[in-house]
Amino acid sequence: MEISNVSAVFRGTIQYGYGSWLVNVAQSIDFEIESQIDLGINPKLYCGKGKVAADTSDCYLNFHKLRLHLQGDREPNWLKKLFTDFITFTVKLVIKGQICKEINKVANILADFIQSTAENFLSDGDISMDIGVTAAPVITSYYIESYHKGLTNYKNTSAVISDSVFHPSQLTENRMVYFWLSDQVLNPVLTAAHKDDRFQLNITAAELTELFKTNLSSPTPAVFRKCLLESDSPELRVWTSSVPFLNTSTVGATVRAQASGQLLCGNQSTPTLFFQTDVTIVVTASYADKKLFLQGNASEIFVTQATLPSQNQTLLDETEVEFIREAVEKIGIPKVLSEGW
């Protein structure tokens, strides 16, 4: 990295004084510094304490011009010129060493800040992510390449993953910043979130009634309609009953999960309806206006269980089972994706 022919002018005033109980003398000197420099840095990255660290010791600073003028005097006498030349020579030596040291310090502060911010962003409660580097990063003509662990930590347990299949040749040349997150990284995150009861959703009262105004082709079962219209505070609780599995491809991220739900009417302790479904959905993501939007297309939905616990009976009517399947597809999945789980 080279920065050439940088010119700058600094002006200021030095104030000094001396005194005693008898007399006080104060003086000031106006000064102006003209500078014109070239700065060159050949940065190297290495693995330091599990993080990306920068080495900018290969650094040079060339002065094309560094002049000090006192009191606006641009044509000083030989004595003043000798004094200012001595000062500028000393300043050159100090600046050359100090600037490169400060650049190295700032580079490492920035690298540490970026990684700490990323770790904090990927951490929530008992779930965290170890993104320590696994080898020294590489700087090429087109990109900076670094490999990170990507290990999910949950309550003192850490995920184990095999080597990544990623290679920079899979990316296009017009890239700026790319983050490659493999299925081996994402699936342990889903496992931790499931164990931490993150995949739960409760929908109550007015919101639940409003959602089921969606036009469905299947007729609404009487028990469901009665619960929504006649009970004071209907509530639908939905959660994952097994660990979701994710597989990415060119069409999107395919997620397979088993979801359970129960409908409670009023203050009943026993659910009016309990159901369990196996769902396979292809999720695609888009980003606009600084917001992430998820779209889902269900490829498979099977209702594996549907019972009426309050009546101690199983739903065998195909029409009622089809209503649950259609409600999951047209109401449940869009609602879950809009929650940003």
UniProtKB/TrEMBL annotation:
User: Which UniProt keywords are present, listed alphabetically?
Assistant: Cholesterol metabolism, Glycoprotein, Lipid metabolism, Lipid transport, Secreted, Steroid metabolism, Sterol metabolism, Transport
Task: Cite the Lipid-binding serum glycoprotein N-terminal domain residue spans from the record.
Answer: 19-106
Which SUPFAM superfamilies did the record assign?
A: Bactericidal permeability-increasing protein, BPI
Indicate where this protein is primarily found. secreted
Q: Write out the GO cellular component annotations.
A: high-density lipoprotein particle
Question: Which domain of life does the UniProt lineage start with?
Answer: Eukaryota
Q: Where in the cell is it found?
A: Secreted
Question: What reaction does this catalyse?
Answer: cholesteryl (9Z,12Z)-octadecadienoate(in) = cholesteryl (9Z,12Z)-octadecadienoate(out); cholesteryl (9Z-octadecenoate)(in) = cholesteryl (9Z-octadecenoate)(out); 1,2,3-tri-(9Z-octadecenoyl)-glycerol(in) = 1,2,3-tri-(9Z-octadecenoyl)-glycerol(out)
Which GO molecular function entries does the Swiss-Prot or TrEMBL record give?
A: cholesterol binding; cholesterol transfer activity; phosphatidylcholine binding; phospholipid transporter activity; triglyceride binding
Task: Tell me where in this chain the Lipid-binding serum glycoprotein C-terminal domain is found.
Answer: 171-265
Q: Which Gene Ontology biological process is one annotated for this entry? A: triglyceride homeostasis
Q: Family per UniProt?
A: Belongs to the BPI/LBP/Plunc superfamily. BPI/LBP family.
- PANTHER family documented for this protein: CHOLESTERYL ESTER TRANSFER PROTEIN
Q: What is the purpose of this protein?
A: Involved in the transfer of neutral lipids, including cholesteryl ester and triglyceride, among lipoprotein particles. Allows the net movement of cholesteryl ester from high density lipoproteins/HDL to triglyceride-rich very low density lipoproteins/VLDL, and the equimolar transport of triglyceride from VLDL to HDL. Regulates the reverse cholesterol transport, by which excess cholesterol is removed from peripheral tissues and returned to the liver for elimination.
Question: What's the protein called, per UniProt?
Answer: Cholesteryl ester transfer protein
List the source organism. Scophthalmus maximus
Organism classification:
Eukaryota, Metazoa, Chordata, Craniata, Vertebrata
